[in-house]
Design brief:
Layout lengths: L5 E4 L1 H9 L11 E4 L25 H15 L9 E5 L2 H8 L6 E4 L4 E5 L4 E5 L4 H11 L6 E5 L21
Parallel strand pairs: 1-2, 3-6, 3-7
Antiparallel strand pairs: 4-5, 5-6
Helix pairs in contact: 2-4
Length: about 170
């Protein structure tokens, strides 16, 4: 099989591949297309549509670069991240998280601070300010393969109908 080749598997083969320990190594990542795909989840698998190799999860070289960026910026390799991740741009949340458990470990990278609690099963990354930095961290965080990610922060320019405490699901920066 050549790099970038598309593989067609039935649902049981996909489940087996996903649960296999080796299925998550960057060297073994391949584009998997389900015969049952409706073209909505994970985009269209139309043969005429090329695979977007710019996406980090479709390109093993970018995957490795993402791993390195995550470690350099946060001081934590992907393996050190917990599977539930909080992202914030407020130091207050970071400090508060640090007091929530007696096993919190703090790492500092070149651009961000990260805190991790194995007991809570949560990592918190303070990415400081800016939408571009938020977009970068979410992209490289994919290499840690979190089960859940939640942004804690604030957004500007919201509609007047929103009140303090309302949940906002952003779709773009």
């Amino acid at each position: 099989m050549d790099k970038g080749d598309e593989v067609r598997l039935d649902r049981s083969q996909v489940e087996e591949a996903v649960t296999a320990p080796s299925a998550t190594t960057p060297a073994e990542r391949t584009r998997v297309a389900l015969d049952t795909d409706d073209g909505v989840e994970q985009g269209s698998h139309d043969e005429a549509r090329p695979v977007n190799m710019n996406l980090i999860y479709n390109n093993s070289e970018k995957w490795e670069i993402g791993r390195q960026i995550l470690e350099r910026y946060t001081g934590t390799p992907p393996e050190g991240m917990q599977k539930q991740v909080l992202l914030t741009n407020f130091e207050y949340y970071s400090e508060r998280f640090g007091r929530m458990s007696d096993d919190v470990v703090t790492t500092r990278g070149s651009a961000m601070t990260a805190r991790h609690s194995e007991r809570l099963g949560v990592s918190l990354i303070n990415f400081s300010v800016g939408s571009p930095v938020a977009a970068l961290i979410i992209e490289v965080l994919a290499t840690a393969e979190p089960k859940a990610t939640l942004f804690l922060g604030m957004a500007g320019g919201l509609h007047r109908s929103l009140e303090v405490g309302d949940f906002v699901l952003p779709t773009a920066a």
